[in-house]
Design goal:
Alpha-Beta Plaits; 195 residues; two-stranded antiparallel ribbon; 7 strands
Amino acid sequence: MINKAINGFKTTWKGLSLTIRHLFASNAKRQVISVTDDNYFKRLEGTNTIQYPHQKLPVPEVGRYQLDVEIDDCIVCDLCAKICPVDCITIDSIKATELIGNTSDGSPKRIYAAKFDIDMAKCMYCGLCTIVCPTECIVMTNQYDRTVFELKDLNYEFSDMTPEVAAEKRQLLENQLAERQAAKLAAMNKKEGGA
């Protein structure tokens, strides 16, 4: 019983002395060094922390942080939303009645993005959406600090189409489909009548 009590005091004293030593030893500011430096991930003696936001650690090139979408280059293929394991990407597409234009790499755009939202509160930063994108319009940026007070503020909307314009584009598509259907029926009736 006495050995257990002595052992308890020894371990308590050891932990307390370690804490006190670190309390008085770490009083220097951390210097920001390059990611490629050999000492970047090693523990620096006598440092507390960096003085954020005045000092910032360099961001590694392969870091995965905030998603960003260049909506003008998006062909609305929906691959990013399909591969997302947590369903944080929501896309509402409207087929265009004619060619809209081309992306920066020359891909033709035939679909409007009525809605392109990414909920960063759900995102697990896996980067799968950036890999499957054929036009490379969705990328991981080097911004890691987007602090918000409300959870709904982490839902980023990338589409610039208003609901009124989206309704107009849907109506144009319905009209075009109705005209095609009527032309198809007229051709079938003409073929049956002539036979």
